Amino acid sequence: MAVNPDGEHDVALEAPDDASAQSCPACDSFERTVLFKATDRLYQTTDQVFQIVECRCCRLIRLFPQPEPREMAQYYPPNYWFEPSSSAADRLEEMYRRLVLRDHIHFVKRAIQASGETGVVLDVGCGGGLFLSMLREHGFKVMGLDFSCDAAVVAWRRKGVPVVCSSLSQAPFADSSCAAVTMFHALEHLYDPRSYLTAAHRLLKPGGRLVVQVPNVSSWQFFLLGEHWTGLDVPRHLIDFRAQDLKSLLDHTGFEVLRTKHFSLRDNPAGFATSLAPWLDPMVRRVRGIRETPRERMAKSLLYFALVVACLPFTLMEAACRAGSTVMMEARKKPS
User: Starting from the edge strand earliest in sequence, which strands make up the sheet with 141-146, in order?
Assistant: First the structure.
């Protein structure tokens, strides 16, 4: 069990003033253990210190206190997604992203083919639209959804992907219209992930597939790195899931899990590399606005990719032990 910087477990038993905001979102308990304290290590949008706490009843791990919704915008930089330019470093990064996203494409493609359904594939939190543009190359109809209108513009302008700027619960899609709904690293950002899964259940066709992926706090990386693990992404990640937490949430929202995967070629090695050396991550450098000459940028990017490759054996081993730093699940509606 991780501990706080003083080497002791902090236990808060009293109910805070704003009970609805501070209780556990899974079981409504106020009892929590402080695992450690952390701030925005990646993008340095704030120097405010937050706690990572574990519910003493259901053991759900979450950010505490959760920022107010009006505060959250300041923690999401305007260039939070990848928008390639014509530079050599960006072209290299685009090639790398396409390579590692094949893992996601294969998982989703297999899920849709097994379902036998046809129709739109809706990607929730689509960012710049690269995943959807690649999926469209395989012959699927695609649609994106994102909170950020700027991201929607990038997806349309760069990739020709139609994107709706909305929350999923308010998205203008007809019931039973989607062959698949995908949520890659979306649920951990939400105050109420249950509402998104309920909306996905409504939008899916009878045999449609839901594919969700979240960081896994029962991973080796979390236990090794603690507050330095990028999977926590303080303060943008509000809830930190174990595989059993995600499976339970899916079960309570009307889904049955068909397949689980503990390795992502895109996320697991890169996440470990960024945890070890965040100042080398191309996205971190871009968001922080670090000034670099073209030669410096290329050198740092190549060094980062080398570190990612060096992290690959460890991440494969942890995934083989079902302790990978991400967990991806394919689910379908429970039979009525």
Answer: 163-165, 141-146, 120-124, 178-184, 204-215, 326-333, 255-261
Q: Where are the domains of the chain?
A: 10-75, 88-271+313-333
- CATH class of residue range 88-271+313-333: alpha beta
pLDDT tens digits, 261-270: 999 999 999 9
| Whether the Cβ atoms of residue 111 and residue 330 lie closer than 8 Å to each other | yes
* DSSP-derived 3-state class of residue 100: helix
pTM for this entry: 0.90
Identify residue 262 by its one-letter amino acid code. H
Flag residues of the chain having pLDDT under 50.
Answer: 1-17, 19-20
Amino acid residing at 2: A
Q: Which two tokens stand for residue 142?
A: 């695609």
Q: Tell me the two tokens of residue 304.
A: 């980062």
3-state SS, residue 125: coil
Q: CA of 207: how far to CAs of 37, 135, 177, 201, 203, in Å?
A: 43, 20, 11, 11, 11
The amino acid at residue 299 is: A
- For residues 313 and 319, what is the distance between their CA atoms, to the nearest angstrom? 10
Bridge partners, residue 141, by sequence: 120
In angstroms, the CA 8 to CA 85 distance is 48
